[in-house]
Write a structure and sequence with these properties.
10% of the residues lie in helices and 68% in strands. By secondary structure, the chain is mostly beta strands. The chain has a single domain, classed as Porin (Beta Barrel). It has an 8-stranded antiparallel beta barrel. The protein has a two-stranded antiparallel ribbon with strand order 3-6.
Length: 275
């Protein structure tokens, strides 16, 4: 009798994920805090309407600690997508004369993976970008601070089912999840910059911001979860003008690559959702 190859085992693992993955608890409120470091890369442009030949552009990077917190709600994915579906059986050929057989279901439901929606505030970003200035002896120095207010969503996918198929039961890894998410909101930015002839000036305001994140989660208990991951954060476009009528202007476009750790504490179960 031919033993199943690893590709067949992987296909079986993917099919077993919705069945073996533990369902998230009923909808719950949580508070979370995070701490990390941000690596920013900025493109800075200087323009002068009176002397166009002084215009310059350049790029620079800097890093800064970041911290923040969030208030959110967590519930099983099947609460968000409660439909029951009929999935027919089918074969997926992967080699001449061989195919993966996928067994369908008359009453398939989305798994109970933990789904989160939250409102997050984050601060601490403070970057110094030093690029070529209008004068060879005077660099363009731009200091940027940023505070973000985001609406985020996140989905945690347990890795328990593939572990069972390939390695058997590993209790210390069963609480591990892979997560992915995204967020959109506003960034309150302040940019302070120098001009070789007009001195120093600053400006502040809100810009639209967005982020994507991914990483690992670990459930210490039913109520305390840890996270370790990466996020891509776009602060938007910042600018500051100098002189009457903005004779000169500095414009910066900043992207931040963040590595963060966080802890979430679930404190209240919502009684009208979940079982």
């Amino acid at each position: 009798m031919r033993s199943p190859d690893r590709r067949s085992l992987l296909a079986a693992a993917l099919l077993l994920v919705p069945l073996l993955a533990p369902s998230a608890r009923a909808a719950e409120l949580y508070l979370s805090g995070n701490l990390g470091i941000a690596f920013a890369k900025g493109d800075v442009d200087y323009s002068n309407s009176l002397s166009p030949d002084l215009s310059t552009s350049g790029s620079d990077g800097d890093n800064s600690p970041i911290y923040g917190g969030a208030l959110g709600m967590s519930f099983p994915l099947r609460e968000l997508l409660p439909w029951r579906l009929r999935i027919p059986s089918f074969d997926v050929p992967y080699f001449p004369g061989r195919a993966w057989h996928v067994t369908g279901s008359e009453d398939w439901r989305f798994p109970g993976w933990r789904t989160q929606f939250e409102i997050e505030a984050q601060t601490g970003r403070n970057f110094d970008l030093i690029t070529d200035g209008p004068s060879p002896l005077t660099p363009q120095v731009s200091n940027i601070t940023s505070h973000s207010f985001m609406f985020n969503t996140r989905l945690d996918v347990p890795i328990q089912a593939p572990l069972h198929v390939f390695f058997g039961r590993l209790p210390f890894l069963e609480p591990v999840t892979l997560y992915g998410g995204a967020g959109v909101g506003a960034s309150l930015n302040e940019i302070e910059s120098t001009d070789v002839t007009l001195g120093r000036d600053s400006d502040s305001g809100f810009t639209m911001a967005y982020q994507f994140k991914a990483g690992f989660g670990y459930a210490l208990t039913d109520r305390i979860h840890l996270s370790l991951g990466y996020r891509y954060y776009d602060l938007g476009k910042l600018d500051v003008g100098f002189g009457a009528g903005n004779t000169a202007e500095v414009t910066a476009k900043l992207i931040s690559h963040d590595f963060t750790s966080g802890i979430s504490v679930y404190f209240y179960r919502i009684p009208f959702l979940g079982e």
